[in-house]
Design a protein that fits this description.
The chain has 76 residues and is an all-alpha fold. The protein is built from 5 helices and no strands. The longest helix has 24 residues. Keywords: Membrane, Transmembrane, Transmembrane helix. It comes from Ammonicoccus fulvus.
Length: 76
């Protein structure tokens, strides 16, 4: 059968470092999530600005012209 004492008395669980850092994983996920949401907010703000939209459109049109040799008729 399964011996609970063998698991709780294991050296890895009794080291000071393992005992002190048990909650760190949750804290690291929380910090990472907050950072990702903040970065997404900044990215959305930048990408929805008219200047950035124009730059992205010009880049896409330049790539189309480079690879196809001409612009599609939809863009003139």
């Amino acid at each position: 059968m399964f011996d609970i004492e063998a698991v709780t008395d294991h050296e890895a669980f009794n080291t000071p470092r393992a005992r002190d850092e048990r909650g760190m994983t949750t804290a690291e996920y929380a910090v990472g999530t907050v950072a990702a949401v903040g970065f997404a907010g900044v990215l959305i703000k930048i990408l929805t600005s008219e200047e950035v939209r124009e730059i992205i459109l010009q880049l896409i049109l330049a790539l189309i012209q480079f690879f196809l040799g001409q612009l599609p008729t939809v863009f003139g």
